[in-house]
Design a protein that fits this description.
- By secondary structure, the protein is mainly α.
- 46% of the residues lie in helices and 6% in strands.
- Strand 2 and strand 3 form a beta hairpin.
Amino acid sequence: MSVSELEEFTAWIEGVIRRQGYDIDSPRGGGKSRLADEAGVHRAAITRLLQGQSMPDLETMRRLAHVLRVPVRDMLIKSGRLTEEDLPLPGLPGDVPPAEEAAAPSLTLEQAAAGLGIPPDQRDMFIRVAGQFLPEWPAGRPEREGHPGARQADAKGVREA
């Protein structure tokens, strides 16, 4: 890691810390100590970070991310430890290339319930609740596999069975 990358990360993390309401500027403000206590790390780690002396270890970074309400992914990328290519975000259904979309397996809500281990006596409730989150789920439609008009979820969303 270069000095400029450490400085860039330090500037970014300072902004995050300030936005979360920690007074890190005044010697008696207690912001550094409070942050260290809430994150469960040594105050010296916070001081070294804010002075641009060293990059926190992965555990310290994870704890700080949690307290500062920042995704650990963002912390790791901003720190230069990993790149966006190293930590890709999961794709959304619309991100599936057309060639892969046609080959995507379809799954009914009944199959999903069975695959998730939902007990048989609770599957109807699971299907009703889960169905509400699928696009274009009309009220009163038969949801179970094998019923006329049963719906199937696939990479495109939901389609008629």
